[in-house]
């Protein structure tokens, strides 16, 4: 029997497992109150279990329910200890990730808890104007031409309709013209993002170029062709801090949180010398790997 | 510096910050006024006027556009997602859904083509907390006189006092050593509280709704009975409770979840609803008609179920659940993105007799049967789709699909890996079978928690498999052909009928139900192939029946006398280049349809299915981008669709 085969022998596994269990048993069967052989559910823990139930059900547990919870707690403790004694926590990807998450959860936000001043927020607003820009807004009407209904006449029909609309002027009721359109014909004070959500980005962009006060078009969308009448357009602008204080505060906090967490990691990383052994230098992995 | 000193500094920093977090949280624990409060009452009165006109919706301002969102997204706070390597938490999930660019856990930048209107972060309630017993009071903490004092102070709303006391003790070096590491001083750091805090932070009424919610992950013998719980309320109410779990003190029985929901509403005056999903992985237990958990399905069960479960998530990444070819052999569109090999963990194989109790259409029909028997229909639910992504990314556009889990984020191997492989049962599901689906579309008056939640409650919703098409569906007795030419179809719809999710009762003499049906394509999506009305009814013999009617088809195709257009729309997809053209199909349909086979004495339901022309599936975009070869059998095109909530008909008693 080669060594390799010997290592794969089920009997060996059985013996090793047995030895491990025996060793674990030796560890847990010592017997002092705070030693592993005793499982003590403290009065505090019982109170905690009762509280947990109460928060879930909005009433305290009955005696049977509490006993059930305690039995479950003891069972969990037994399995937990046996598993730990066997070293089942070692080199387990899920446990490693869980512990990493747990520490991240604890350290999230720890490095800097200061509240931002107005100066901080103003500086952030000026550095990221696009994140807070008050969007361009429109009040517009449109008339829709469904390409399936017009076929090859689409361009001609659109031109004719445009002339009719301009003849009627701004008083024209758009719902009297063109084809039916499920989202409606008049949109009051909508932002460019809202227009993009309902008509697609290209239409929203083109609408920005349409000069107000006259029927224009055709303007294309994912639905087909539209004639549009922009009655009002408000240009986008960077708002004053007071208008967007909450949003700036949230973004400032988010940026601060990310950099603070990274600072903490860099601090912890300093405690270690990181050595990455490359099995073989390939063009891809050659050279120092940046672990920062 | 020695290690000890550094470690102490770290602990000090942690402990200090926790105190400050407690302080900061205290300030925000006041009732939030960001969302509509008193406004709701006025609105409720509008919906239920004292003397109702013919249509209960006639006197209100009706919803003018659907809001698109995801009611079912997991983040790193879900135990399994974290174990799979997901790094993004609820905050990042909300940022992404609002349209921000974020770094996915796999290290690639990700951004949506268009922002979503709302999102529910629904992490698994079991093991949600890294310290799940924190808010219940950590035993070590409660055993300590000081800890007990702080706990009591915080419980009685004097968190500020507690925090100051904690700081004082810490500064004077009298901070008990055993509390140093104790999570007791982190009373507000539980994952549930963090989840709530993230939702509160990113909720922006009028622009983006961040719902508070969680998933109750009931798994009974490997059979999926999961429900997502969604709060109408703000953090002040939601933070008064702990999410319901399946481990003690929770339960795997949905009946117990409903009790929890009832207790929440009684205690806080708030509102919650639950949305079940993946009946296809329940092995015949999602929609029982005889018994569940050893108890007969009776009137009480039916009443509770429909009280709390107003919606069902009919399509998502782990398969589409509308219909199954075994149950609907004459439905050529029923074989769509199915996952029908077994239950959730693939521990038991599927049998045909289970399907009836798993799929939406069958459940809706059986609901009529149960209503006849019990007097209440437990399966009178509306429909939504959602993602169930475990990446923190509600990214399911076919050309922008970030997969179900972090390892399934875009990579050259994801198309060829196995999602699940159980050699014992022989069930193997490949990653390419994961469906880039779906969204919840909600006809709400405005983009707020209250308005969207209320629309969910009244079932004015539809599911899509990822498209953002607009679908209208109204039922009434007096729609006529001319209504389809009306330029304000919504006004006609609400005036003369009820919207999706509504009821028609006791047909007037000689009348058949009429429906105003309309659909508008996604502005950046594929054209529409057809609209179908699917009817289910309970016949004279007490047997459930179904029938499909094509009511609008593109390209002048003929609808036969039997109500079907059998000519397929065609296919323009160039798989190799992952492109298509909108040279077939229609951009908009609107029509009025009258049920030609109506019997006023029989219970019935009607819902709409809209089908798009074929477009490239995510697998085609992957193959093009990575230049890799799909496995044999991989589906490369998809005809996206929408399913509306039904409109029910009940005969006169």
Description:
The complex is a heterodimer of chains A (292) and B (653). Chain A folds into three domains: 3-106, no CATH class; 107-132 and 238-292, no CATH class; 135-234, Chitinase A, domain 3 (Roll). In chain A, α6 crosses α12 and α10 packs across α11 (201-207). Chain A has helices spanning 3-8, 10-28, 43-57, 63-85, 93-107, 118-127, 129-132, 147-150, 154-168, 192-199, 201-207, 245-269; strands at residues 137-145, 186-191, 215-220, 225-234. The longest helix of chain A has 25 residues, at 245-269. In chain A, a hairpin with a 4-residue loop joins β3 (215-220) and β4 (225-234). Chain A has 292 residues and is of the alpha+beta class. Chain B has three domains: 3-30 and 136-186, no CATH class; 44-54 and 62-134 and 189-441, no CATH class; 469-650, no CATH class. In chain B, the strands form eight sheets. Chain B has a 16-stranded mixed sheet that branches. In chain B, strands 22-21-24-27 form a four-stranded antiparallel sheet, with helices on one face. Chain B has a two-stranded antiparallel sheet with strand order 2-3. In chain B, α1 (3-28) runs antiparallel to α7 (159-171), α4 runs parallel beside α9 and α6 packs antiparallel against α7 (159-171). Chains A and B meet through α3, α4, α5, α10 and α12 of A and α1, α3, α5, α9 and α11 of B.
